[in-house]
Write a structure and sequence with these properties.
By secondary structure, this protein is mainly beta.
């Protein structure tokens, strides 16, 4: 089943996708999951009902989870990307960092090149949305049933600010730099852990990254288990699983996104996230 968050009457609203239409299901994905709503059942009921259908064409998308409780991202989580970054051995532990809600944008919404930097990069990534509270110290073998679904994410990065400190958070949290959507595909429709899926980025139609989610260093299940050693993952929390090789900063010469560009992230069996690029102000 596929869900999307559209802006309706000035606020985000969750609905189930019915072909090229959308049917409202709940006010908010995170709130529905926190309330224990059976969204699969609600989605089936909406699809079987005579509720109004909204054409997806021309709609404004919000971030799939507009206000996640936590958005935890992984750096250097594909073997080829770690190698192009100068790291040749599997790390002992993931490079975790946070994203805040003001950095998130929906499908079709502009990613913003900040006034203070032109080193604006793309990163094709897969997002994991947690569906139920994950118990502390959950085992890797027991982790995947807590995943509600998967989506596309573009971890747009301001590289010079990212490198100003040993922590990456500041370069990953400029406003309007985290593309998230357009749809969530529920976990039951994908392979366990969403492995074996082709993942690409395309800048103005040119393929820049082309890999497979099987190439991730830390799998979805292992990542959840590692995080559960430290903190409680809650319904509507988001984990962003890292990017493969081919980012702009690793190219010769580097390729930076600029106003007028369009960046697309496509994951097999999930969908395509597209964002135009504009200059701040």
């Amino acid at each position: 089943m596929r869900f999307a968050t559209l802006v309706q009457q000035g606020r985000p609203r969750l609905g189930v996708v019915d072909g090229d239409h959308w049917v409202a299901v709940a006010d908010d994905l995170r709130a529905a999951l926190e309330a224990g709503t059976d969204l699969l059942a609600a989605g089936r009921a909406a699809l079987a009902s005579s509720a109004p259908r909204v054409p997806l064409a021309g709609q404004t998308y919000a971030p799939l989870v507009p206000e996640p409780g936590k958005t935890i991202c992984l750096g250097l989580n594909y073997f080829d990307h770690a190698k192009e970054g100068g790291r040749t051995e599997k790390p002992d532990y993931p490079w975790f960092f946070y994203r805040g809600k003001s950095s998130l944008i929906g499908h079709g919404q502009p990613g913003v090149v900040p006034k203070v930097s032109s080193k604006f990069d793309y990163e094709a990534e897969m997002a994991v949305v947690i569906g139920r509270k994950v118990p502390r110290h959950v085992s890797q073998a027991d982790a995947l049933p807590y995943v509600f679904g998967y989506a596309c994410f573009n971890d747009m990065s301001v590289r010079d600010y990212q490198k100003r400190t040993g922590q990456w958070t500041i370069g990953k949290n400029f406003d309007a730099t985290g593309g998230f959507g357009p749809v969530l595909v529920t976990a039951d429709e994908l392979p366990p852990g969403a492995v074996g899926l082709r993942i690409q980025s395309r800048l103005n139609g040119q393929v820049m990254q082309d890999a497979n989610t099987s190439d991730m260093i830390f799998s979805v299940a292992e990542t959840i288990a590692l995080l559960a050693e430290c903190l409680t993952l809650e319904p509507g929390d988001v984990i962003v699983m890292g990017t493969p090789a081919g980012v702009g900063q690793a190219r010769t010469p580097p390729v930076w996104m600029k106003a007028g560009d369009t960046i697309e992230i496509q994951i097999e069996r999930i969908g395509t996230l597209s964002n135009p690029i504009v200059a701040e102000g």
